[in-house]
Automatic annotation (TrEMBL):
Taxonomic lineage from the root: Bacteria, Bacillati, Actinomycetota, Actinomycetes, Kitasatosporales
Pfam families: PP-binding
Record keywords, A-Z: Membrane, Phosphopantetheine, Phosphoprotein, Transmembrane, Transmembrane helix
SMART domains cross-referenced by the UniProt entry: PKS_PP
Basic and acidic residues bias (residue ranges): 15-29
Example GO biological process: antibiotic biosynthetic process
Domain Carrier: 25-102
Protein name per Swiss-Prot or TrEMBL: Carrier domain-containing protein
Region (Disordered): 1-29
Length: 568
């Protein structure tokens, strides 16, 4: 790599490149169109179809990124990415490569619209919005009423043991109700999802929106990465085989159109919603995954896509509608294209049905007898045992017009807020470190065991969004990440070295070199998963690099090129 200054953008290619471009004009067809776009970007009359983008024409990565953006705006040209540019560094080879990589169109199961799509009227828009507001208010009122009655019943208990038992019963019943209600609403309002399309703001859309909102608000989302989450999707109508592991918190909506074969693993931040919005309409369609499929992080599977048995889709990739990944093939990119890289490089481990069932049962017992009582009973104890809070919320509270009420509320809020910050940071900087002693780097462990529980606890605790939202986009974020366990070497402050959406599998195997700038949305993939096993590994980013938005950075030896670099 040779560094090239930004001044290259203002200057054209050297004279030899200009002479060469005059000697050989672009050919017809796609080569001619690509050459015209590149010539316009570089402000020259013409370019040769055999001239090397970097060595002959003097372009750099920013110029070619501009070229790719211009090509993608042309409906008559295939989409081009920077990966294509480096793989095919001439117009002739690029045209051939794009033509060979173009996906074969597959007939969509969504019927083509037979009528011109007209926008919804103001009356439809207002009616739908009003009904949505009524549903929202009704749900909140019902939840508030149940919570209030439940709190009164719990507070009527005498003694710690009685309060605990009442908290278990009320909290458990409330949790079960919150989990079952969206499932019942889906089957009552929708029945089975089918491949179709319907306009936004109509009554069909209102039913769709109601089910989507309830499904996404279901507390079962906290069981992602747990066999119980697979059971939840099956209850919603999804066809899911044995031994499937799903880490994505993005819940599919049209679940009857989702089919996942046995042994498949889906990493976090993968989108497979089985619907999309297009031209004022909602379109639903199938997403089909075969057996032993791997779907990477930050991937998108559009409707009417499928992957054959043992197929793989790499991180930050997308399957567009109609694309099919044949069995035993590995694809990557957006739109995805075939590659030879193996994303599933971890050995399997013994993880049978009994192990999965036991892990799910233990999770349920923890929720019902530990987390729920702590939440419900803890709130009760906080209100009853803290005199200031009891006086503030009790029947003898001062009137709303009294300044004392607002002063006391402000002081109490500040105490609780900063107390939570201090206590939370103390826990985050100590407890995960102790748990990390149970998980050794580069060692393969089976899923749904003690080591897996420790790893998941580390990931959940150290990825809390509250502190990233509080400290992100500021110079404090680097100190927070270093406290979690990041190896940040000597930090050259830029005012915002990380954004608010940085995440990782484990902070203790993450290192970032000095002078590196990270925009936002970095996901450090320093853990590998199969449907039966996992392994944590070191992920290192070198010094003086720039990483843009929403980067999925895997473990192992990597080198990130700087923003202004030129390939020789």
């Amino acid at each position: 790599m040779e560094e090239k200054s930004i001044e290259v953008l203002a200057s054209g290619p050297d004279e030899s490149a200009r002479d060469k471009s005059r000697d050989s004009g672009p050919k017809a067809g796609i080569e001619r169109d690509l050459a015209e776009v590149l010539a316009d970007v570089m402000s020259v009359e013409q370019v040769s179809v055999d001239s090397h983008f970097f060595d002959d024409l003097g372009a750099n990565s920013l110029v070619m990124a501009h070229f790719c953006a211009r090509v993608r705006k042309r409906a008559d040209l295939p989409s081009a990415s920077m990966k294509d540019i480096y793989r095919h560094p001439t117009i002739r080879s690029l045209a051939t490569g794009l033509a060979d990589a173009a996906p074969t169109p597959v007939e969509s199961s969504v019927p083509a619209p037979t009528e011109v799509v007209t926008p919804a009227s103001t009356r439809q828009y207002l009616l739908c919005g009003t009904l949505q507001f009524i549903i929202f208010v009704g749900y909140c009122c019902l939840a508030g009423l149940v919570t209030g009655r439940g709190y009164e019943w719990v507070s009527a208990g005498s003694g710690l043991r009685n309060v605990y038992l009442r908290a278990v019963l009320f909290g458990g019943a409330g949790l079960v109700g919150l989990c079952i209600f969206p499932i019942a609403a889906k089957w009552i309002l929708i029945g089975r999802w089918k491949s179709r399309e319907f306009p936004i703001w109509g009554l069909t859309y209102l039913r769709f929106w109601t089910v989507k909102t309830l499904v996404h608000a279901n507390p079962m989302i906290f069981f992602v990465g747990n066999p119980l989450y697979v059971l939840y999707l099956r209850a919603l109508g999804a066809r899911i085989g044995k031994g499937v592991t799903i880490f994505s918190r993005t819940i599919p909506v049209c679940t009857d159109l989702l089919t996942i074969g046995a042994g498949t693993v889906i990493r976090k931040d993968a989108f497979f919603l089985c619907y999309r919005a297009h031209a004022g309409r909602i379109q639903t369609g199938h997403v089909t995954l075969g057996r032993d499929v791997f779907v990477g992080e930050k991937t998108v599977l559009d409707i009417d896509t499928s992957m054959g048995d043992r197929a793989q889709l790499g991180h930050t990739s997308a399957l567009q509608s109609g694309q099919v990944v044949p069995e035993d093939q590995r694809w990557h990119g957006s739109p995805a294209q075939r590659t030879e890289f193996d994303y599933l490089s971890i050995a399997p481990a013994a993880c049978g049905t009994l192990r999965r069932a036991g892990y799910g049962l233990i999770s349920v017992l923890q929720v019902f007898f530990l987390y729920v009582p702590l939440t419900v009973g803890g709130a009760y104890m906080l209100i009853t045992e803290v005199p200031e809070l009891r006086n503030l919320l009790g029947p003898d509270m001062v009137g709303f017009t009294s300044p004392t009420l607002y002063i006391d509320a402000l002081v109490l809020s500040l105490v609780l807020f900063f107390g939570f910050i201090v206590l939370g940071l103390a826990l985050l900087f100590t407890v995960p470190r102790l748990l990390s002693l149970m998980v050794k780097p580069d060692k393969v462990y089976p899923l749904y065991g003690l080591h897996y529980s420790a790893h998941r606890a580390i990931a959940r605790m150290t990825n809390l969004k509250f502190f990233k939202w509080l400290l992100g986009d500021s110079s404090y974020i680097v100190h927070y990440l270093r406290g979690l366990g990041y190896d940040l070497s000597h930090v050259e402050q830029t005012g915002s070295n990380f954004g608010t959406e940085v995440q990782h599998e484990t902070p203790y195997l993450t290192s970032v070199g000095s002078g590196t700038m990270i925009a936002d949305g970095l996901s450090v993939i320093n853990a590998d998963f199969s449907s039966t096993s996992f392994r944590v590994s070191q992920a290192s980013i070198g010094p003086h690099n720039f990483l843009g938005n929403n980067i999925a950075y895997p473990s192992g030896p990597r080198r990130v090129t700087t923003a202004f670099s030129r390939r020789r």
